[in-house]
Amino acid sequence: MNIYSSRPVVLCLSGHDPSGGAGLQADIEALLAQGCHAAPAVTALTVQDTVNVSDFRVLDREWVLAQANAVLNDSTVAAVKLGMLGSLEMVDTVVELLQAHPHLPVVCDPVLRAGGGGRLGKDEVGYAMRERLLPLATIATPNLPEARILAELPEGSADQCAEKLLPFVKHLLITGGHGDEHEVHNRLYSRDGLRETYTCQRLPGSYHGSGCTLASALAGRLAQGEHLASAVKSALDYTWRTLRDAEQLGRGQFVPRRLPLDFCS
């Protein structure tokens, strides 16, 4: 038996979704699919299903710091993935953690709304993330509604949101699943002027946990040493396949199939 793991460790600071469609379970499955080991630190507990979120509770900062530091002090962490934070105090907690480990690549999925539309934090949480957290991230991966909240542009286009947000974050991937274009346009913006658009076929239906899946897959590709633009494409391609093969496990949105059926066989 090989007792020395060769898989990169990715620290995930995200909420728990009891439906298993989003949150930490999505992180774990997506990272396994990238050949990584997920180290999940719970930031919040939610009451949600595949239809929507009805309530949530953010954990005390001491518990989150203790979880994260237990991982950071024990393992060689290769990347950090951020998901639901839910409160101003939790934003400050994660800022404190990241400032203590500035060498780590950080993928920030600014979770502010559930797939069904329910809020997972007040709008001032978005403002705090933009001002204090995005400057510490390698890349942020909002969908267009989240980008509009972060940019404070209720009707803004992806380009307009990017212009407002790039002073805060080095790289920005605004996903187009909520758009009305015939194809999905996922747009990568970089502060150095790089612009890339990745198009894919728009699939029918709506999906629970697609943003978590994408951000975790991207963190996994970066942890594996892939360059950013290539990692973005790899993560987008992987996420599209999980949506193509998604399952309807409840009464609401489809859940991405992040692992092949024979994964454990």
Automatic annotation (TrEMBL):
Name of this chain's protein: hydroxymethylpyrimidine kinase
Organism listed in the record: Pseudomonas fluorescens (strain ATCC BAA-477 / NRRL B-23932 / Pf-5)
Enzyme Commission number(s) of this protein: 2.7.1.49
UniProt keyword Nuclease, yes or no: no
CDD domains in the cross-refs: HMPP_kinase
Broad class of enzyme this protein falls into: transferase
Domain Pyridoxamine kinase/Phosphomethylpyrimidine kinase: 17-253
GO molecular function, one term: hydroxymethylpyrimidine kinase activity
Keyword Kinase: yes
Domain of life of the source: Bacteria
Designated gene of the protein: thiD
